[in-house]
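input
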Amino acid sequence: MNLKFRIVNTAIMSVLLSFMMTMFVTFINLGWSESFFINFFNAWKVALPAAFLAVLIIGQPVQKLTQKILKPQS
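output
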């Protein structure tokens, strides 16, 4: 897997996961209000870089573990 693919894949995965999780947690914690999107975007701007680093670090090990788990038995 080349570096360009890995960076783009990591960016897409971290944007989508951090967006969904941050929106969900913000809604669960604060409910719907006039300031929902302000609170959500404030949380998301902190979560996105953390998600990017997390996916960058654990992405390949998780792929290898998945391949090992799903490897056909001989």
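quick obs: The mean pLDDT is 92.
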